[in-house]
UniProtKB/TrEMBL annotation, chain A:
It holds the Pfam family HTH_34. Residues 16-95 form the Winged helix DNA-binding domain. This is Transcriptional regulator. SUPFAM superfamilies: Winged helix' DNA-binding domain.
From TrEMBL, chain B:
This is Brp/Blh family beta-carotene 15,15'-monooxygenase. The chain crosses the membrane at residues 23-49, 69-89, 109-128, 134-152, 159-177, 183-200. Signal peptide: none annotated. It comes from the Bacteria. The keyword ATP-binding does not apply. Keywords: Membrane, Transmembrane, Transmembrane helix.
Amino acid sequence: MKDILKNINKAFDHRIRLGIMSALVVNEAVDFNTLKEILGVTDGNLASHIKALEKMNYITIHKQFIGRKPNTKYSANSTGIHAFKKHIEALENLIKNT
Amino acid sequence: MVEKNYLKEISEIKSIMNKSSRFISLSGLSGILAGIYALIGAAIAIYILENYKNSYSGVSLLPISYLEYLLLSIALVVLVLAILTAFVLSSKKAKKSGEKLWHATSKRLLINFAIPLFTGGVFCLVLYQNNLIGLIAPSTLIFYGLACLNASKYTLGDIRYLGIINIVLGLIATQFIGYGLYFWALGFGVFHIVYGTVLYNKYGKK
């Protein structure tokens, strides 16, 4: 059992963090408000989970201005995509073996 | 118990991936209705053309340019009705599933659909300018097919096949100039109805 669980990534062991990564791996980049809309979470909640993923160096942040408004876009980097794939594979294995 | 949780997690991942990258509220019913409008439009156009050939009927007294305007306005009415229906039904469907109609994915869908379609529109104007009227109907089918093919990456993947089949039909139509209207009725009418029915059955009214 321990062997199967070792690939389960702690960073993705939360609904919202998993959701953020799911949205980022299929899109080039997603901005904050779109993520908020897709996941249906509050600003503070989303920000803290994004920070956690940023700390793991799974996502890249692009800050820019649209007119005068700041706009922040997020994208999954190669480390993040790799980790996410591993996690999904581990999940699938868990399902198969239980 | 544990297994159920992970299964739920996987399905949630899938749903977020779809929601964030594809516009999935496309209504199947609007496809069926668009097909029906196209068939009605084609029937009226054929009726008018037949009357025109028959020199004893009233319509034939009209100058040719008036006839062109008449046919063009039929096509425009069909187009506007089809777009309106798609808009209303898709926004209804989006509302039901708690989605907004106008957001990143629907914008992306529209832009990618519009680029080949707009190109086709301009190209058809050029054909008209050079008096190559017979190639206009096949060209609209080909460019509409390309638009569907391009848009399929951003919405329900099924419209990819609608695109391919319209491209093929358009290419075949280039060899049967003069029967453009019939190919038109088949491509925009019958194929829309078939495709709309498939979508409707596959994704339901939701």
